[in-house]
Write a structure and sequence with these properties.
Layout (H helix, E strand, L loop, with lengths): L25 E4 L2 H4 L4 E5 L11 H13 L4 E5 L4 H13 L3 E6 L10 H8 L3 E5 L1 H5 L4 H10 L6 E3 L6 H14 L5 E6 L3 H10 L4 E6 L6 H13 L5 E4 L13 H14 L8 H13 L8 E5 L7
Parallel strand pairs: 2-10, 3-4, 3-6, 4-5, 7-8, 7-10, 8-9
Antiparallel strand pairs: 1-2
Helix pairs in contact: 2-3, 2-7, 3-4, 7-8, 7-9, 8-9, 10-11
Length: 308
């Protein structure tokens, strides 16, 4: 059953009222950096699903919002989290109470940064916790203490980045939408939930390339665990290329900024720097390395838009 076909139940938010654009558009771009190698590049424009619940945020949040059934949604993120902004926007649009548990203590007397200010303007209550406690947020005792502190013991809890079994199953549709249109699908990865679902829906004979935006080499285990929880075992053909994090989460370099600006000029696409630019940079590099056989179609998932 699609997001547009779901039956609304009493007490549940009406996601159909948000009118998501599904399936998201698929745009071919002509780029000689791929063409000279006989490779076709297409962009899966998940950034056009909804103006505020952008890209994979819609796919991961929609099933969790339904599961919340009107209860408060409590979720987690850093001070510049795209996931927190999307959850706050969903709360405003659906009149659903939301709480964002933010990593790091709030500085007294200091204004919120633009990202958190947007969350607060959308009605999200912000609860700051020390980094040591934040690292233990999934432990039952720490989590129950946080829920008591925000007065939401019966809340629907969504993990950092939105990646849980519900989200992974929601992202399976992304793979189904791309199944007949690409041989390789690439996307930037934070918590791995989108890749875990995408790989499950893509089908045999096609593969997913994940570009982690965090350092550490831990993401493969996270993806396997997510697929286990969502589907009972591994699904799909996927791999990770750890070379393109550009220093880690929320990090960029002058070279990446220059690449993104050039891509924007070439193709008229606003390129989000922390995720999308890294995936596109990886694809250009891999095409130059001969990683894609001639005649193949490569799809890049555009998972978000620049903030502000």
């Amino acid at each position: 059953m699609s997001d547009n076909e779901r039956v609304n139940h009493p007490g549940r938010p009406s996601l159909t009222a948000l009118a998501p654009r599904l399936p998201s558009p698929l745009h071919e771009v002509v780029d000689e950096r791929f063409g000279r190698h006989g490779v076709r590049l297409v962009l899966k424009r998940d950034d056009l699903i909804h103006p505020e619940l952008v890209g994979n945020k819609w796919r991961k949040l929609a099933p969790n919002l339904e599961a919340a059934a009107g209860r408060t949604v409590v979720t987690f993120g850093g001070a510049y989290s795209n996931h927190l902004r999307a959850t706050a926007a969903a709360g405003r649009l659906l009149s659903l109470p939301t709480v964002g548990v933010v990593r790091g203590q709030e500085l007294a007397g200091r204004p919120l940064n633009p990202s958190l200010a947007r969350c607060a303007a959308d009605g999200m209550r912000l609860h700051f916790v020390e980094r040591s406690a934040y690292r233990r947020k999934t432990e039952p005792g720490t989590l129950s203490g946080i829920l008591r502190a925000v007065g939401a013991e019966d809340a629907h809890v969504v993990p950092e980045g939105g990646s849980n079994a519900l989200a992974v199953r929601g992202c399976r549709r992304l793979g189904e939408e791309l199944r007949d249109h690409a041989d390789v699908v690439a996307l930037a990865c934070g918590t791995g939930g989108t890749l875990a679902g995408l790989a499950a829906g893509l089908g045999a004979g096609r593969r997913v390339l994940g570009v982690p935006v965090l350092k550490g080499g831990f993401l493969a285990d996270e993806i396997r665990a997510l697929q286990q929880r969502a589907f009972g075992g591994p699904r799909g053909d996927w791999s990770l290329d750890e070379r393109f994090h550009f220093g880690g989460y929320a990090r960029t370099t002058p070279a990446l900024d220059a690449f993104a600006a050039d891509f924007e000029q070439r193709h008229g696409l606003p390129v989000e720097r922390l995720y999308v630019a890294k995936a596109l940079y990886a694809l250009v590099t891999l095409a130059g390395e001969g990683a894609f056989p001639r005649g193949r179609t490569v799809a890049a998932v555009i998972t978000g838009t620049p903030f502000g």
